[in-house]
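Slide 14.
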Amino acid sequence: MFEKTQKIYGSARHLSRVAAVQAVYQMEQNPDDRQDVVRQFLQARFAEDIKGTTEPDFEFFKEITEFLAKNLTAFDGQIAEHLTDQWKIDRLPSLTRSVLRCALYELTHATGVPTPVIINEYLEVAKGFLEKKDVSFIHGVIDVLSGKIRKP
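Slide 15: predicted structure.
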């Protein structure tokens, strides 16, 4: 995803979000042992592949990825509500699904994190991986779902 020499700038949680999206993407590519993906990141990938300007928040990374390792498709119904009849969830780019799944995990489980922070963070993560049109789609879905999930 990122070149080994590229540093990721941002907070410890931002680095954890970037890694979580990568891990969820990898879980989808290799669904046989999703927990192994989490272990790989914690044992080696953070040290070798994911270099940041700060240490990641490992507990936060584990919260997101361990939940999604057990419930990868938990939010797919909510995502599917925002697709046209011609599109199905499995036609979305895998990275788009990964970003949306991680963002929806936070919207539903990380009640201490403000909604605008979650939206902004995942848009920034998406910008590092996806084209502008995909980022716009993600923004629309997260924005609508955040209003439903976290009613003011």
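Speaker note: Residues 1-5 have pLDDT under 50 and may be disordered.
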